[in-house]
Specification:
There is one protein chain. By secondary structure, the protein is α/β, with parallel strands linked by helices. The chain contains nine helices and five strands. It has one domain: Flavodoxin domain (Rossmann fold). The protein has a five-stranded parallel beta sheet, with helices on both faces. Strand 1, helix 1 and strand 2 form a beta-alpha-beta unit. Helix 1 packs across helix 8.
Length: 206
């Protein structure tokens, strides 16, 4: 059965980001999808040390840093889709999530080692919530980074909220968050398991 991993990127384990993620995963489960939720702040994730800039062959999965990032990346590998739900810290995701995304270079860089990014074709949804501006830039930053790593963001695959009032009393963001789960599940169920990026495309154009 297909699986979605939900990643709560807030230090508040029962905060708005976490509860919006719960709604999203519940919607995904309506489409014959198994879901799992993790709270990122319960894991130790050290900053990336930039192996790839010294020698691309050093940057690979499992990452050489021995912390909890490899555990999370193993869960990512066994999942067909990911939903990130995050607060907004100065127009960006919090540093703990940024650490994880930076470390996920070990999955993407396998394209240089084995010819295929380990994130290729995985479906990604993003929820960003804050009480001030920056929610859209945070959601789009995460989505565009994961697309660059080979993942897929479906239509309506991001939801964002930036108001001082509680997101949990706003019908629009509740619907949007639920639909993130719905569209990620739908995309997983219709997406063909094909190889997308061709690292040898230029040789075929000669």
């Amino acid at each position: 059965m297909r699986k979605i991993l939900g990643i709560n990127s807030s230090p508040h384990l029962n905060g708005q980001a976490s509860k919006l993620l719960d709604i999203s995963l519940k919607a995904a489960s309506l489409y014959n999808i198994v879901t799992e939720k993790i709270d990122l702040y319960l894991y130790r994730i050290e900053p990336c040390i930039g192996c790839v800039s010294r020698d691309q062959n050093l940057c690979r999965f499992p990452c050489i840093i021995r912390d909890d990032a490899n555990k999370i990346m193993a869960k990512i590998l066994e999942s067909d889709g990911l939903i990130f739900s995050t607060p907004v810290y100065w127009y960006s995701p919090p540093g703990h999530l940024k650490n994880l995304i930076d470390r996920m270079t070990a999955l993407e860089n396998m394209i240089e080692i084995e010819g295929r990014s380990l994130l290729e074709g995985k479906v990604v949804g993003v929820i960003a919530v804050g009480n001030d501006s920056g929610a859209y830039s945070t959601a789009s930053q995460i989505a565009s980074t994961l697309v660059t790593m080979g993942a897929v963001v479906p239509p309506w695959g991001i939801a964002f909220y930036a108001r001082p009032e509680s997101a949990l009393s706003n019908k629009n963001i509740l619907e949007d968050a639920a639909n993130v789960g719905l569209v990620v599940a739908k995309m997983i169920n219709v997406l063909e398991k094909i190889e997308w990026y061709d690292p040898k495309i230029l040789s075929r154009l000669k």
